[in-house]
Amino acid sequence: MPVRPDISSVLVIGSGPIVIGQACEFDYSGTQACRVLRAEGIRVILVNSNPATIMTDPDVADATYIEPITPEVLTTIIAKERPDALLPTLGGQTALNAAMSLVERGVLDEYDVELIGASAAAINAGEDRDEFKDVVERCGAEVARSVIAHTMDECRAGVDALGGYPVVVRPSFTMGGLGSGVAFNDSDLHRIAGAGLAASRTTEVLLEESILGWKEYELELMRDTADNVVVVCSIENVDPVGVHTGDSITVAPALTLTDRELQRLRDIGIAVIREVGVDTGGCNIQFAVDPATGRIIVIEMNPRVSRSSALASKATGFPIAKIAARLAVGYTLDEIPNDITGSTPASFEPTLDYVVVKVPRFAFEKFRGADPRLTTTMKSVGEAMAIGRSYTEALQKALRSLDKKGTAFHWDGPAPSQQQTAELLESIAVPTEHRLVDLQQAVRGGATIAQLHEATRIDPWFLDQMLLLEEVAQEVKGASALTADVLTLAKRHGFSDVQVASLRGISEDTVREVRHAFGLRPVYKTVDTCAAEFASRTPYLYSSYDLETEVASREREAVIILGSGPNRIGQGIEFDYSCVHAAMALSDRYETVMVNCNPETVSTDYDISDRLYFEPLTFEDVIEIYEAELAAGPVTGVIVQLGGQTPLSLAARLAKAGVPILGTSPEAIDAAEDREAFGVVLQRAGLPAPAHGTALSDEQARSVAQGIGYPVLVRPSYVLGGRGMEIVYDAQGLDDYLQRAGLEPGGVYGTGPLLIDRFLDDAIEIDVDALYDGSELFLGGVMEHIEEAGIHSGDSACVMPPMTLSDTEIARIRRSTEAIAKGVGVQGLLNIQFALVSDVLYVIEANPRASRTVPFVSKASGVQLAKAAALIMTGETIASLRRSGHLPEADAAVTDPDDPIAVKEAVLPFKRFRTTEGRVVDTILGPEMRSTGEVMGYDVDFPRAFAKSQAGAYGGLPCEGTLFVSVADRDKRAIILPVARLAELGFTVLATTGTAQVLRRNGIDALAVRKISQGVGDHGEQTIAELIESGAIDMVVNTPKGQGARADGYSIRAATTGADRPIITTVQQLQAAVQALEAQLRGPFQVRSLQEHIAARRSRRGSAPETHPVAPVEDKETR
Predict the structure, then answer these.
(1) β-strands 962-966, 1035-1038: how paired?
(2) Ramachandran angles phi, psi of 192, nearest 5°
């Protein structure tokens, strides 16, 4: 059937902020769907609170609402926009849960909105554990034996019914395995099931028989209204059941199944998708197979586009989200053409003539004390994917794509001794981030396949491949000379030049010279969905040491854009956003070539750039791509300043190898990164920086810190996201830091000198994004942080336009920014952090690259900075961009009193990281970045915008209830007014003894409660931690008292996060929260689309005569 005539507008719900378990794969699928629906002539209304996505760009949908995804806000938008249909299957669990709330509240019926993509019945059948069990059994397959429980007593009875421990505990309606785990005894059960009951929307958990150690598989399927079903891709987990599939190394297609087993999985999968009734879209089904008996169990299904669908799309070139969107509006699979071949329909199942490996990237180093074991709760923050002609080649490429020390296989030092090998075999029995590398070391030490299988339960075929890699390594090491044959063998198994160099004891450059002398270079193959049966029209390429290359020659000049690699904390989707914008902006004049290895993102979508290389971002891989492109046609240059630190750190080596770097030169990048050089720039410009020094040894560090005076901020060189950065209050704290940092891989001074700065207490921190073309500056945005300096800019809430800066201060900031841009020699984007302390504007740091605030600034100001930056890098000027309409006449130095206010709030993943005892890791914010994503609140004034940002980040502030306050002495004066206001609004105030006394003296009725260190009272009075854990407290204000007395504070914050209540850890945040609460009490949120904001801004700037401004009543009619 062609497109349904009764659907003229569709509301698409996005997935909100990036959290662990729900990352930018939903930005990729949502962006694809919006583009397809608009191409069909349908009006697309989008709701998503995440400003860092391409999806929320004003040109992706017709009406873009960057608003909190709550049932109330969605109802307001539906009432205003009156869509015909709602598509909830592209925004992960967030969108599904929101849609289900609207169904239950009767909102969709009231406004006559149809649910498309999946019916409420299908969503329930897939999500509700009991219903799903019936479905699977009706299909003649089986699920794990299970019991549903709603209380702890029911849980205990359930364990007995299943035949004792171990049991798996899973809550209903959650995402990324949140709250689930394996219980081996009573105390585990109490810990996991207690948390699970709290995390589930329906307070129920499922206990099921343990299938730990079974083989795990997934199928991606699609079905249409004519009952055509295709299996897009089979995926096999290298790690057996017990590790969440998002944390597991996975391969596509499945490699260790017999044809018969695969057919059985297909039959079950097809029967289940039919029975559940998904008839307009994709779904993903997970299976477990008992390797001993071949018994197959269906673990679960997701009746929506999932994390695995993004992987399957990138692995096969079959765009699941695009096709799902077309199916949802009435097409069938045989009517949809395959984009890549152009000659086959989507009802042709893709076939692969290569192997794809996905490897997760973790961030345990950010959460001290977190339990490093991998379980059924997802903990990885990103993933890298690689394509090769064999499993070994793809695996080695994927591991080096992770861009993290210690993740690739290595043969350094002597092989492990028998004793060490025995220890390794013991350690790999528990899945952790480093299990595969430890396994490889055990193979070096002579462990057998039987021993390895016994320890890990990984399929013997995968273990045999590890032995094969070891044999190749020994051959490379033992060969009398590095011959062409030896090198070819190593390359075909994915060994990098760096690995070969360390095996031979020579330098990487020598290996490259020898390899080129033999004429050994990679060729590039196409991902074509059909194993080369039909011609492919889109160049989506991967490297291999094979015979013929498939890189087509071209006439136009090319620009190569280096992406940002796998998502991680500190370098996420915001950088991908800038890379995609560059590809869009340059596509008119150049062939755009994207290099990236992250399967979740929009940049690795084959129709964003003219050519896509799915390759690791290492020097070796990038230089080979550059030379292959040079052979195909002229190359203008390479863009390194948009993908964050990963491509930036390659700049100097690429330039030395003769590669033209577009935009800011590698020397200028160094001038900003190198402390001494940057000091000179500031001195010339007459700008103050906080007192600072550098150290290359512990002695130096102590004397420098003594000279500067405590408190100091310490951090290693060349890091992103404040890795290893801390505030130290005294000499003892510094010793403690040096000792801890010395144990990390690379030590304290591994990346260069340790940087030590005077820490500015009570400073207002300011973030600036600007463009510079060599002669003129365009100030993109000035953001004021709500928290004071000392909290990493990625974690602190910030507001734009700034709340408390006068026009003269903004002018001063502009002059300083211009002086730095000129002094460093920036060509393109620049981000500077300033600190304002009692009228002195200090420069904290400058980064001559795209920063993580670029998307937020672009959405809030309506100026697409990354596009402008790409054009400046290729020779445009700010003046020429103003003439072509890419940039407005006035920049951020000109304030517009009617501009709406945007607040960015960070979303933190503390709930997923627990210590081995099961407590949440400490939630205190500091100079090291820990947030995974962000939301934006956008409204006419600060209180409303802040309230929206809180609602979007974690569901919002309570309007009534009990407040607990415990603050450091230096904050006691500042909290009196906000707490008094909360008491007036009807909150009951509890406080620790000291704080309660101060509040009472100021006429605030505060009840004193027992500290944790005081223990339970004589008459059984609970301590504050017990009160919080029991849910008696609705909001907590707790500011830390410096480094020493942190134990009480930590327990309070851990208990609050565990109980899922808002916690406020700075005075500034408390003041903002009070304003937000007052705004919330004035009535429900009003909404306005980005397009309306932009139109209003244009009419104010363009047509409104300057002499008599429009009366405010007309402009703010949205109030």
Answers:
(1) parallel
(2) -75, -45
Task: Answer yes or no: are the C-beta atoms of 770 and 833 closer than 8 Å.
Answer: no
CA–CA dist 438, 897 (Å, integer):
60
CA distance 807 to 245: 52
Handedness of CA 630, 632, 634, 637 (dihedral sign): negative
Beta carbons within 8 Å of 377's beta carbon, 6+ residues apart: 176, 177, 178, 179, 180, 181, 244, 912
User: Which residues does 664 contact at the CB level (< 8 Å), separation at least 6?
Assistant: 641, 824, 825, 826, 827, 828, 848, 849
Q: Euclidean distance between the first and final Cα of the chain, in Å?
A: 44
Omega prior to 166 cis, within 30 of 0: yes
Stretch among 95-109, 238-252, 429-443, 690-704 having the lowest mean pLDDT: 690-704
Residues 1021, 1026: Cα–Cα separation, whole Å: 10
> Which helix (H) or strand (E) element contains residue 1036?
strand 1035-1038
* Cα 597 to Cα 539: distance, rounded to the nearest angstrom: 15
Structure tokens at 365: 């180093």
- Whether 333 and 327 have beta carbons less than 8 Å apart is answered as yes
Q: Tokens representing 192? A: 């996991």
Residue of 540, 523, 521 whose CA lies nearest to 385:
540
User: What integer pLDDT is reported at residue 918 of this predicted model?
Assistant: 62
CB atoms within 10 A of CB 962: 18
Query: 227 exposed, middle or buried (CB, 10 Å; 0-12, 13-18, 19+)?
Result: exposed
Q: pTM (2 decimals)?
A: 0.88
Cβ pair 292, 5 in contact under 8 A: no
Q: Tell me the β-bridge partners of 568.
A: 571
Q: Give residue-wise pLDDT tens across range 640-691.
A: 999 988 998 899 999 999 999 999 999 898 888 777 788 888 888 888 888 8
Q: Write down the residue that tokens 């705004």 correspond to.
A: 1079
Quote the CA–CA distance of 268 and 217 in Å, as a whole number. 13
Ramachandran class of 539: left when φ > 0, alpha when ψ lies in -120 to 50, beta otherwise: beta
d(CA 98, CA 71): 6
Both tokens of 502, joined, read 């360390």
Mean pLDDT of the chain: 86
Measured CA to CA, the distance from residue 78 to residue 84 in angstroms comes to: 10
For the four alpha carbons of 950, 954, 958 and 964, in that order, the dihedral sign comes to negative
Q: How far is residue 859's CA from residue 862's CA, in Å, rounded to a whole number?
A: 5
Identify the DSSP state of 692.
E
Q: What is the mean pLDDT of residues 585-603?
A: 93
- 101 membership: H or E segment, kind and range: helix 92-105
- Tens of pLDDT, residue by residue over 444-457, are 999 999 999 999 99
Instruction: Report strand pairing: 558-562 vs 591-596.
Output: parallel
Tell me the helices (H) and strands (E) count for the chain, helix number first: 39, 38
